[in-house]
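Open question from group meeting: does this chain pack into something compact, or does most of it stay loose? Before anyone orders reagents, we agreed to write out a predicted structure and look at it together. Recording both the input and the output here so the notebook holds the full record.
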Amino acid sequence: MKRLNGKSFAMRLTILSAFLLGQLAFAAPASATGEIVDIMTMHDQARLLNYTAAREEAVAQARRGGAPKDIESMEKALFAPRLSFDGFDLTGNWQCRTTKAGGISDLVVYSWFRCRVTDDGSGWFLQKLTGSQRTTGRFFTYSDSQLTYLGSGTVNDDRPLPYGSGVDSDEAGYAFRTGRNTWHIEFPSPRYESRLDILEFRR
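Structure tokens returned:
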């Protein structure tokens, strides 16, 4: 699993914010470590920079219009205590499901499908194996209790494009561990349909 110093990554996002406001040109700080700062697109850096706002807006809309049982399910995932990934092995087969909050629908909780995480020697690698909307990608360490996920979204059995192929397929999010065998990824401002996607895992 590749490691990125959290302070360095936060610095990069701060620089990006200034760039988007037209206040200065984007430049990489010399202290940045980990290749994620060279891999991540500027579009995804902007999405992650706006993570908190997107999350709050999605939750507010979901609470206003979602079904009570779906709201309970969403909140159970989003507001569970965040645990350390230290000593936690993501590899293996998982049940996984997507919740879409905000956007064109207030709140939608889908059925459970199959996912798999492997370690190919370069770190943890995720594949969502079933369901119409899938993702394939890699994790990077942001902090002890938070991972950054960069991936590629596909439909059905379409072949995933490499990350960085464009805004239609690129995905970025943060992963959090919530229990002995539960964790999830939060995708702020996904390309389609929602304001926040939550991909939950259990086994």
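Observations to bring back to the group:
The mean pLDDT is 87.
Strands lie at 2-3, 92-101, 107-109, 113-119, 124-128, 133-143, 146-155, 170-179, 182-188, 196-202.
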